Amino acid sequence: MNLAVPAARSPEISVHPTAIVSPKARLGAGVKVGPYSMVGDDVVLGDGVELVSHVVVAGRTEIGADTQIYPFASVGHRPQDRKYHGEPSRLIIGERCVIRENATLNPGTEGGGMETRVGNDCLLMASTHVAHDVRLGNNVILANYVGIAGHCTIGDNVTFGGTCVVHQFVRVGNHAFIGAQSMVDADVIPFGMAVGNRAVLSGLNLVGLKRRGFDREAIHSLRAAYRMIFSSEGTLRERVDDAAQMFAKDKLVQDVVEFISASNGRALCMPRNGAHDEQA
User: Fold this and answer.
1) Does residue 32 sit in helix, strand or coil?
2) Which class is 3-151 in CATH?
3) Which end of the chain is more exposed for a tag (fewer CB within 10 A), N or C?
4) What residue ranges do the domains of the chain occupy?
């Protein structure tokens, strides 16, 4: 990333006359800062970043190349956490993200690793919230009014329907789908589909798997392992161990096994009445 200081003096950078950009901020080539936006001292904007208008970027925030941020987004202000006491934590946003109107993203805290991170190619729709110490993977979609509470870990290619809420410290695995208006207070397995208040596992995200090009054999094995893991025979630990052995060469199944094994005693989102995966 090519950085220019001070930003407003570079012919490659467009700063609207009503915008306020700190001379200490570092702006890459082709950055556009729209009307009435504000950029703080410790902000880094990568090449091609665009703040459309009325965007405020504060704190120790780094935004990756070609990310677009829309009006009234609040990016990098102090966390909404009473345990925060001014420590120099960071917010890092990846490349090619789209952050829509009224979204709020907060930096990390000392109790959570000092960093909030958003991956590449994410879409955060209007009025979404990414709290302190969250880890958001690549290609994640948060529909309108989704709130991700502190310390959550969201995998790659996860999609949230509108008005979802995710409880603190929850993990959501790669390629999962969370239905609209869900309240998620337990971990959701990779490739899983969860819905409800409180959310229950309603099957596998079969539509997402097919759209992303997973082959039929891999999906068939994953479905068989899902039924095994979430059957009523024996304990969950025994069923997970059986799936690990039976599907030792199936990467998708092993991703699920590893996710569950790494739960460290956390609650796992489970099916309500046995294992079903016919829902799209």
Assistant:
1) strand
2) mainly beta
3) C
4) 3-151
